[in-house]
Batch of 4 targets.
Target 1
Amino acid sequence: MSGNGTNETTTEATDPLKQKLTIASQVAMGSALILIMFGMGCTITLNEVWKNLRRPTGILIGFLCQFIIMPFVGWSLAHIFQLAPNLALGTLAIATSPGGTFSNVLTFWTNGDTCLSVCMTICSTVIAIGMMPLNLFIYSRSWAEAAAIIPYVDIFIALVILLIPCSLGILAHRKLTKWSKKIANVCSGIAMVMFLLAIIFVAVSSPELVYAHWKPYILSAIYPLLAITVGYVTPWLFRQPPPQRRAIAFETGMQNGALALAVINLMLARNVGDLAMTIVPSLYSLFVLIETISIVVLYNVYIKYCQDKKVGKEENELENDADYNQRKEDDEENDLEKDTNIRHEKGDEENEAWNDANYSQRKMDDEEQERRKEINGVNHNNAFTETEK
C-alpha cells in the first residue's frame, strides 16, 4: 500500500484464511445491519412519527444537514487531503449515509428530543434510498475510477430490502409493546458486537490497512466533529430550541457506518474495488463512538456541576429575594399597624373632643336654662310686686 492508501489487493485472495475472514466480515456486517433496522423498527411509534411529520421543521433541517451539506463536506475533505479514489469512495460512502440508531441513545443521554431523533432516523433511512445513490453519482465524478465501479441499482435495491426488517420491527412493536424496547436494546447490543467483529475480521485479513497513511486517520477523526458542529449550528440558525439542536447534531454526526460498509461489501461481492475502501468507514465508526461518548460525558459533567452551581446561585438569590420580600412585607405590616394605631389614637382624640364639645354644649344649655330661670324668676317677682301695689 502506497502513501495515499492505494494497493493492488483484490477480494480474490489466494490465502484461504484471508478469504474466509473477508466472507465472515461481510456476513457479520450484513447481520449487524439487519439487527439495527429491526431494532429501530421496534422503537417506532407511528403516532409520534405522524406528530413530527405534521410539523416537519426538525426533519427538514436534518435532511438539509445529512443529504445536502455533509456530502459536500465529505467531498471537500477528500479533495483537501488528496485521497486516492478508493479512499475517497469510502469517505463518500460515509458522507452520503443516513443517521444511525445510536444517535437516539446519545440524544436521550443528553436530554435531547428523542422523539425527533427517532423520526429523523426513520425518515433519513427511507430518503437515503434515493439520496444516497444520487449523492454518490454526483460527488464521485471527481474520481472517474471510483465512479465507474459504483453499482447504483444494487445500492438502491439493497436499501429498499433493508425496509423489510424495519417493517417487521414495527409489527413487533405493535404486537409486543411491553417487550419491544427490550428487544430493541438486545438487537442493538448484538449488532454493535457484530459490527466490531466485522471491523476486526477486516483488520486481521488485511493488516496492511491498519498501517494506512496518516490522512485517513486525521480525516476520520475530523469528520464526526464537523458533522456534529453542522448539525448543531444549522438548527441554531433556524432558532430551534436546544433539545432539538442536540437531536439534529447527533443525528448528523452519528451516520450509519454499518450501512456504508455494507454498500462497500456489495461492491466487493461483485469483485470491484478493494478493501482499502473500508478504511475510512471503519476508522470513522471507531472515532465517532469515542468522540460522541466524550461529548455526552462532558455534557453531563457540565449539567451536574456547572449547572448545579448556577441553579444553587439562583436558588440563593431567590432565597435572598424571599428574605427581602419577607422583610418588606413585615415592614409594610408594621407600617400598617402604626397607621392603624395612629388612626385609633386620632379616633380617641376625636371622640374625646366630641365628648368635650357635647359636655360644653350641655353646660352652655344648662347655664342658658339657669339664666332663663333667673330671668323668669325676676319677672315673676316684679309682676307680684306690681300686683301688691
Target 2
Amino acid sequence: VDAGEPGETINADETVVDNPTESSVSDQEEEPATEGGLESQESTNQELVDEFIDDAENNEEEDTSTGSGEKTIVTDDGKRKRKDDSDQLIEKRVAVEGRENAPIPKKKVVFPPNKQEKIKLKKGDWIEMEENGRLIRASILNREKLSGRYYNYFNIRGEDGLERNIDGERVKFKKLEEEECDMVMIPADRHKDDDCMEAKNVELKKLEEFDSYETVNDEGQYRISCRWILWYKGEEVRARLVARGFEELESVRSDSPTMDKCNLRLLLTICASEKWTLQSSDVKSAFLQGQHLDREVIIKPPKEAGVPSDKLWRLKVALYGLNDASLQFYIKVRSVLLELGCTQSTMDPALFYMRDKAGKLMGVVGLHVDDFLHCGNKAFECNVTQKLASIFLMGKV
C-alpha cells in the first residue's frame, strides 16, 4: 500500500486505502493480479493468503477490484473487506505475520447448498439410482441435516452393504414404491373353524409327502416354535405352517439371488429375436422342495399334528420362516440346472443358459424365487423344461 497517496486516512484500528484507476507503481514493479482480481501490495513481512468464506457458487461472480470508487479495508484481526460501487461487502480472510489474533486459513471441501424443495424421503425408503454407469438399489438410513442448507443430503446403504452420502438434488434417482400384497388374512380367533382346520390338515399332509421332518425324542434339545398363517386365496382358505426363524441361535446366510431387471429384458429380447415361445413355471410348496439342511433345527410341532408331548420335529428341509429358506431352494434349483447341462451366467447368478455342441444358444432360464421364466428350442424344452417339471412339483405353466 502506498502510504503517500492523498486522501488516505490511517487509524490504529484499520487502514482505508483509495485505489485509483491508474496505479502509481511502475509496470516492472507491479505484481500480477490473483484470480479474484486483488493485487498483493503488502510489505515483505506480511503474507497474504486468501480464502473465500462464502460458498463455491459465489466464485462465479467476477471481481472488479480495479474499478473506480472501490475501497479495500484491512483490519488488525486479519480480515480484508472490500466495498464496491454497489455497496456490497465482500469479506476475505488474511493471515498476517506478527499478529497473534490473525486466523490461519485452512482448505476445506465446500459442499453446494440445497435450493430445491425438501425431498420427501424417510428412513427405510428404497431408491434406485445410477452409479458408475449401472443402476443400483439403496435404502435410506437418515437425512444428513433436518434443517439448514443441506437438507436434501441423505445417508444411504446399497444392496452391496456399503454406506455412502448423496445429494438428492444432484443424483438422478427414483423412489421405489412398496410392493402391494393382496392377501386377506384370517384372524386367530377363526383358526378353529371347519374350513381353517381343513386347510391345516392339507398343509400337514404336504409336510409328510415332501419328507420335511423326522420325529425325535425330547431330550432337552434347544427348539424353536412355529405358528399358523391362514389367508383367503379367492374363496379358498390356505394355511401355512411357519417356523419362527428369528429364535435360532445360529446366524445363517439369508440372501437369495433373483434375476436382474436388465437381464430380464435381455431374456425377452433373445426370445423375440429367436422367435421362441416364452413360458413361466410356478413351483408348488417350493421351500419344502429345497436343499436338505446341513444343520440341526428342532421345532415344537403344532397341536394339530397330534404328536405326543415328549416328541419333537427335526427339520430336513428349510421350513417357511427360516432365514435361509429361500436360499436353500435356490441352491437346489441351481444344482439341478447344472446337472441338466445348463451354464450359470457369470454376470447374474439367477440366469442360466444352454448351448449345443456348435456353440449355438439353445435356451435361457431366469429365476425369481419359486418362479421360472424360460424359452428355447425344442431340444431345450425336452432336455431342460420337461425334466424340471419331473423333478419339482409344478403349478401353473
Target 3
Amino acid sequence: VHGGDMEDHKNSQRHWIKDIGPSVETNIGFIESYLDPSKTRAEWEGFVACVDKVQSKKLNDLVSNAEILISKLPWDKAFEKDKFHRPDFTSLEIITFACSGTPVGINIPNYDEIRQNEGYKNVNLGNVYPVPTINTMLFLSQQDKELMFKHYKTSLFLIVALHELLGHGTGKLFQKLESGKFNFDSNTVKNPFTNEEIKTFYDVNQTWHSKFGEISDGYEECRADCVALYLGCFDESMDVLFPELSKEEREEVLYAAWVECCWAGIKALMFYSPDAKSWQQAHMNANYCILKVCLEAGDDFVRVEKTTGSDGKPDILLTLDRTKIHSHGKKAIGDFLHRIHVYKSISDVEEGGKFWNRYSEVDEFMTSLRQIVVDRRLPRRLELQHDLEIVGAVSYTHLRAHETPEHLVCRLLLEKKK
C-alpha cells in the first residue's frame, strides 16, 4: 500500500476480510471513487473503531438468515451469486475516521473480483448517525416529524443493515472468463424482460464501474436502498433486527424508513444542477430516483405538494400513505429493483442507462421544488469526531464524546493548538 501498487492493496483487503470479529476494527487505503468523475481514482481514507457487541449480534443474526431473505428478492436465482459468501458484519463505534465525509455504513472492498469470489465485510457505523431535531425536519407534517424523531435511529439501522449486507452484497455479474467460458449458462438463462438469450456481459478485465461509468455509483446506491425498503416489508427482517419491538412499533419503524428515503429525495434536489442537467452527488441521485418510483406507484401512495409556510413563503409538503406500503410501495420498488438489478447483472448499459436516466430526470415541477429547497436550506451540518485523551497518573485512555458540536468546535481547535 505504501508503494502505491494496487495489487498490494488488493492483497491487504484479502487479509482484512479474513480477520473475523475483531474487537478493534481498522482499514486504510484508496477506497471510494465518489469524488472522481470517471469513477476510477479513489479517495485515501482510514478509520479506527471499536465494536458494539449488542448491535453486532443482531447483524450477525442477519447474516445467518441472509439466504432466506435473498430468496425473497424479486429476481430469479440465475441472477444471484452462485454462493453467498457470509461476511463479517459488525456495528462499530467510530473513534476516528479520516475522509471527506463519514458514511453511516460501509461494504468493502470495492474490487469486484474480490467481492464476487472471495468475500467482503459490512460495517454499520452506529455513532455516525446524524441526530435530527424537529425544527430541522423540513417538508414534513408535524405528526411525521414527531414519528421520525422518535424512530430516526431504528429506521436508519433498518436501512443501513439491509442496504449494506443484502443490497451491496447481492447480485451476480455475468462475465466472460479468461478461459473463454462464461460464468452463467448462456443456453438456459434468458433476459426476463425480452425472453431472449443473454447478449451482453462483462468481458475479461471489464468491471461494473468501467461499463456503466458516471451513473454507476448512484445506480448501485439506489439498488441497495431499494433492497432495504423491499426486504424491510418482510417479517423475517424485522424478527432479526427488532425482536424487542411490538408489531405496532415495527410498522412505525418501517413507515419511518420509507418516509426517510422519499424525504431524502426532496432534499436531494439541492444537489441537482439545472444548468448542466446533471446530479452532483451519487447518493442524492439515488434518493431522487426512489422518490420518483414511489410517486409513480399511484393512488396517492406518495404525494408532494407546494404549500405556503407559516412564514408566508413557498414551502413543500411530502406525505406517504402508510396503509399502502405493502400493497403499492413494495410492488413499485420491487418492479423497479428487478430491472436495475438485471441490467447491472447482464451489463446491459444501453437499456439500463435509458431506464436510469428516465428516473433521474428532473422535470419542470421538480425544478420549481428545487428552488424552494434551495431557498429553505439550513446551515451545513458540522461533524465533530471524538477525542482520545490520557487521564490520570495511571495513564488510561478516555474517549471524550461531544453531543453538540456547534459551540465546541472553536474551543476544541484551540485546545489542540496548545
Target 4
Amino acid sequence: MVKAFNKKESKRMTCHKKYKIRRKVREHNRKLAKKIKSSSNKKKKNATNAPNCPNTAPFKEDILLDILKQQENLVAEKKLRKKHQPKIVMKENKPSTTSIVSQKKVSANAILSKSDVLLWVVDARSVPESVDESFLATIKESEKKFVFVLNKIDLVPCSELKSWYTQLIKIGPVFLVKSTQIILSQSEQIIPAVKQTIARHGGGKGLIGYLKSSFPEALTRIGVVGKDQVGKKCVMSTLLKACGRTKTKQATETKLNENLRLLSSPGTIETETIGILSVLSNLSRYMNYPVEVVKGLSEVIEKEDAMHHFTLPDYNHPEGLLAALATRYNTFFGSNPDYEAAGRIVLKRLRDHTLKFVVKCTTKATRTSKCVPQSMLDEVEAFLFEGDALTLATYQVDIQPVTPGKHSTRGGGTLYTVHCMCIYIVYMYTVYTGMMYTTDTLYVGKRIL
C-alpha cells in the first residue's frame, strides 16, 4: 500500500521499545534494592570507640578525655533507665453507665423500680410469647402505668395486626411502631436519600405526643422492657429520633423533654418457655438441631399454608414435611435426602425475614371492640404489610434435641464413614507415592468402593 503524502507518524510505541523500557526499569529497581540491602547489613560503628582527632589540635588529650567521659555517662544513664523502668498499672474497668448500647442485661424488675412509666415492647409476630402474665401481674401490683409498643409491624399482615391490637387495647394503651436502631448524625445532613433508605422508622411521634400529654408537669422517668429480640433498643433509638436527638449521653438517663427522661438501659423479661422468638434469638445454638426445629414447626402449621409458602406438592403432613423440603431445595447426599441442609435453609429464611410468620389470633373482634385509630394508621401507612405470612397456631415449639450418638439424618451413616475413609486412603497413597490420579480414576475407585 502506498504511503499517503504528508502523513504524520504514529505516536504509538512499538512493542520492542516498550518491553525494553520495562526490562531496564526492572534492572534498575533490582540494583537499588540490592544496594539498600547491602547498606543496611553493614555493621554500625560502636559508640564507645575513641573519636578521631588530628594530632595538630591543641589540648588533644583533654578533649579526648572529656568525650570519653560523656560517652560513659550516657551508657550509665541507659543502664539506670533499664533498671528503674516505670511499672504499668492496669486499672480495673469500672462498670460505666452506658447509653443505649449496653452489653449487660438488666432485669425488668430493676427497671420497674426505677421508672414511673413502662414501655412494654411487643413483637407483632408473636404477641402471646412477648406478653408475660406474671410480669403483667407485677406491674398491676406496683400500680404503675404502662404502654404496649407493638413493634415490627412491617413483618406482619395488616389483618392480623389489627386483630392483635383489639386484644391488647383491652389491657392497656397500644401504639404501632416501626423502629430502627440507626441514629444518623452527619450523614442525614449530607444526603437526604440516605435518611430515607437507612433510617426508616415510624410511629414514634404519636407515642411521644401521648407521653407529653399524659405527663405535662411532673418529672417522669420512662423505662423500656420486653423479651429478647423484640427490638427494645430500636424502639429507644426511634424515640430519640422523634425528639430530634441524634446522640445519647453516657448517663443513666437521657433527656427527651423538660419533664421526660428515658432510662438508658432496657429491661429484659426472662422466661423458660421455648417459643419461635427464643429459637430465633438463639439461632446459632439451634442450627445444630435444624431437623428438630422443623419438626416442631410442622406441628403448629397447616398443610395448605406450608404448601403455599414453601411451594411444595402434596405430601403427608406433618411427617413428610422434611422429605418434601429436601426435594424442593434439592438437598441430597447421594441418593438419600439431606434433612439437615433443608432445615437450615428454613431457619436462614426465618432469620433473613424472607419467610414471614405470625402467630394466629384466636379471638375474633366484635362490634364493641376498639379498632386502630386512623391517625395512627396514617403515620405508619408506608410500613404496613398487605401480603400473607406463615401462620402458626401457637408460639410454643416442641423441640427435643437428640444426643450426638443417636442423631443421624443422612441414610447409611456407617457406610458413609467407611466410604470417606477409603477415599482418604486412596488420596494419601497418591500423595506419598508421587502419582497423580485423574478424576476419572478416583471416580472408578469410588464406584468400586
